[in-house]
Amino acid sequence: MRVVVVGDAGVDLLARPEGGIVPGGDVRAGARLACGGAGANTARTLRACGAEPTLVARIGADAGGRLVRAELAAAGVDCAFAVDPETATCCVVVLLDTEGQRSMLADRGAAARLRPEDVEAGLPGGAAHVHLSGYVLLEESSRPAGLAALAAARSAGMSTSVDPQAAALLTDAGAFLADIHGVDLLLPNAGELAALTGSPDPASAATLLGTVGAVAVTSGEHGAAWVDRGGMTTVAAEPVDCVDSTGAGDAFDAGVLTAWLRGHSPGGILRSGTRLAARTITHLGAQLVTY
């Protein structure tokens, strides 16, 4: 099962300060460098689930880009990367608190310059599905590439999915919904759902069914819900200790997509997503190494 992911690939710098940050001062912290980017996170987890992912992304001609390509390729992800000679690879500083919750300082770098021709060159033949990271649509510089990916998928008869990705960036819900009209599956978290419908209640996803075919909502420790014309199905979250919440939603997407594309029931689809999200938050870094 070949799945195309269109989204960011980059480097995460994870830091857990020992106590509060002191402006102008020094604070000791645990820190590590890891591969990240919403598109890359989902693609790597898709591979761990047995899918054959192709990641369409734009990276810089720098050490970060070389690291990301090498790690993803070693994990079995087909890297259809355009290389930007002028802009650095996406880099995100991830600040972790004592509960494992993350705050991110993101520089999308080359990812923000993804172009329609990058997508056209990277789409492989024989793919079943295209998954688009909302970050691509939510920045004007990369939005045409996101629209091109959805249009190409429809023309080729592939199914499509979109993760809105960032509630704070969904400042024009109407424009975003117009961009994704006709998408088969929308994958918001509760905050993103609230930005699109006015409510974080999964039941509000029913109002989106005139725009998308189905909605899979993740609500963190409160579980997840599947909403389609047949009604709503919910499952509980798996109880685990959270070390690092980075990438949980991206892993949820991968689990949902593989189960959905294999024809599982709504409950099975959701359990696949919540299981992978739970595994991801038990270790540092956004990407599953094994499954």
UniProtKB/TrEMBL annotation:
SUPFAM superfamilies in the cross-refs: Ribokinase-like
UniProt keyword Transferase, yes or no: yes
Superkingdom of the source species: Bacteria
Record protein name field: Sugar/nucleoside kinase (Ribokinase family)
Organism: Amycolatopsis cihanbeyliensis
GO MF annotations in UniProt: kinase activity
One Pfam family recorded for the sequence: PfkB
Alphabetized InterPro entries for the sequence: Carboh/pur_kinase_PfkB_CS, PfkB_dom, Ribokinase-like
Keyword Kinase recorded: yes
Carbohydrate kinase PfkB domain span: 3-288
The entry's keywords: Kinase, Transferase
